[in-house]
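Design review, sub-item: ligand-bound model
Attendees: FS, YL, KQ
YL presented the inputs for the iron/sulfur cluster complex:
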Amino acid sequence: MSDVLLRVRDLRVHFFTDEGIVKAVDGVDLDIERGKTLCLVGESGCGKSVACRSFLNIVQPPGRIVSGEMLFYGGADREPVDLAKLDAKGRQIRQIRGKEISMIFQEPMTSLSPMYTVGNQIMENILLHTGTSKEDAREKAIDLLGQVGIPKPDRLIDEYPFRLSGGMRQRAMIAMALSCHPNLLVADEPTTALDVTTQAQILDLMLELQHNYGMALLFITHDLGVVAEIADDVAVMYLGKIVERATARVIFNEPQHPYTRSLLRSIPKIAMKREELDPIKGMVPSPFRRPEGCTFHPRCPNVMDVCRHVVPSVTQLDDTHTVQCLLYEPEPVEQARS
Ligand code: SF4
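KQ shared the predicted structure:
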């Protein structure tokens, strides 16, 4: 039986603006395995968050999924459902969202309303997706708040989110996301806004709960330190494309794509002098001015002439390792040299 929980193929999400079309996700292929952690990494503006929002079919206008497949094997029969084909406001996707797939955000107030108590919001999700009574839903909400490390959960359940600290709000959001035991938790930079100590506590908590619940975790981050701690697999994203995909061990020890190597070289190390820092040259280009050919070519230390006009395709280096770079495609390189 397949271990794949979500299989994404050639996903394209475009934003139709007055200034032009932004191809935020431009042909993404991804497999998320049951019970494993996949980290999606890349600089800000590379399309990571849009890709993940599309997995829940919550892309906001003027954006929309224009093509591709997102096969979700989450049901008891493991029959695939193509999330890309579901009506974003329809019954089927609403049954999957919050129950089979949950999402947590960098800013907890994105999913917690200031108008209702923490308990009401967790209970609402439980009541929506299960046939349980109000009393049982309240008991379960208190239990969940306890599991995520909130002290005196039977009292805090009646508090409003704005009365909690940032770390406590993040814990409450995790409790809400886990309230129906999802198969997949999508976490969009959930620890970026927290101080280092709280960040470490929340990461430990998420890993513990992932282990207890046996769920898959899709973790979006630009922090490679976090990736090193938690990832089984890593997908590196640049301007809407997955440019390299491999196990975490391979990404950290044998990265092949020049962008992945540049990201790894730019991590500051303890005792490193300021002049030894090696940041990536240039900036992520404006989505309205995508470079021709390989979109990374203006910043690439290995750029060749061919890169300026040929778009690289995906090269399979081994069973679990893919890269999208002309260095690994013999033909275009030979053409350029001849
Ligand atoms: Fe660099 Fe060329 Fe590979 Fe793009 S295709 S990453 S420019 S070597």
